[in-house]
Amino acid sequence: MKVVITGGTGFIGRMLARRLVARGELTAPSGNLETIDEIVLFDAVAPAHSIDGLDDRVRIVTGDIADCDLVRSLIDRDDVSVFHLASVVSGGGERDFDLALKVNLTGALNVFGACRARSGRPRVVFASSLAVFGGAAMPRVVGDTTKQTPQTTYGATKAIGELLINDYTRKGFFDGRAARLPTIIIRPGRPNLAASSFASGVFREPLAGRTCLLPVSLSTRMPVLGYRTAVEGFIALHEADGAALGDDRAVNFPSLSVTVEEMIAALRRVAGNRPLGDITPAPDPAIEAIVATWPVETEWTRAAALGLPVDADVDGIVRAYIEDFVDEQD
């Protein structure tokens, strides 16, 4: 079978591709486990360096997700699964409304349309976000069925994507699932335009011996998810029995609700014996305004029932990052 990962050269896309190469099989539209013989990583730009941990089953394609013909040329087999991760992120969407609509809405429609055109019912896993929640009436703890009142363009496009996943599945066009993600930590490399980028930077920069400029207060609380657990969660959601999802295909992924101060404490517990860069307050009203619209805690009963993996604590996420991206470079 074939797997297409949009946003495939991004951090989670690369990690997912490595895991699928190692795993070697997924449940195909036939309903049976089938060997993965082709993986396409589709993205707007090529990676700056070769991606470790892949093999000759994997190829990278660059292009515009708003190009319908190109997307259809990639989703060209009936025995296909798609992980749709490509997106303009929160801060980027606030800066460029039209680009967010082009990538997040037109792109999603192109992916969903290409899957609809295949015979059978391909499984489609859509990366959504807790940014679908918001508004003055948002409760402190959001669950799978909490009303969605997104306060960013990014969150609005994700909410629309979830509705489309439900409707395309209801129509029998494909077997869709939406992964409603908290902030994923710890991302290596350079900061991105996501308003949540600081949640990785508060670990990554000090571990690299650099100063982290913290745009929010130490008391800022947010749900987070380790990147290893996120990747395993994507696969677990793909493999879940569609009947268990019912007519609501979106699932809050498990998360840990922590403050920035608690993140820093975890860093110091795990890596206090290492030379660490400073963490310096640098309030950014634009970032603070976006973060203030997010939920601070989630309920994820459905994810637990489906057997999605859970992080034990932030310390374990820090240890994994050091193992994968810090000690590996030493």
Low-confidence stretches: none
Any idea of the CATH topology of the largest domain? Rossmann fold
Biggest sheet: strands side by side, in what order? 5-4-1-6-7-9-13
Order of helices and strands: EHEEEEHEHHEEHEEHEEHHEEHEHEHH
Number of helices in the DSSP assignment: 12
Can you count the beta strands?
A: 16
What's the helical proportion of residues?
25-40%
Instruction: Provide mean pLDDT, rounded.
Output: 96
CATH H-level name of the largest domain... which superfamily? NAD(P)-binding Rossmann-like Domain
Helix-strand makeup class: alpha/beta
Rg, alpha carbons: 19 Å
> What fraction of the residues are assigned to beta strands by DSSP?
15-25%
What multimeric state do the chains show?
single chain
Main sheet overview: 7 strands, parallel
Architecture of the largest domain in CATH? 3-Layer(aba) Sandwich
Name its key features.
2 domains, globular, 330 residues, 3-stranded mixed beta sheet, 20% strand, Rossmann fold, UDP-galactose 4-epimerase, domain 1, single chain, 7-stranded parallel beta sheet, alpha/beta
How would you portray this structure in words?
This protein is α/β, with parallel strands linked by helices and 330 residues long. It has 2 domains: 212 residues, Rossmann fold; 84 residues, UDP-galactose 4-epimerase, domain 1, CATH 3.90.25. Helix content is 39%, strand content 20%. The chain has a 7-stranded parallel beta sheet with strand order 5-4-1-6-7-9-13, with helices on both faces. A 3-stranded mixed beta sheet has the order 10-12-14.
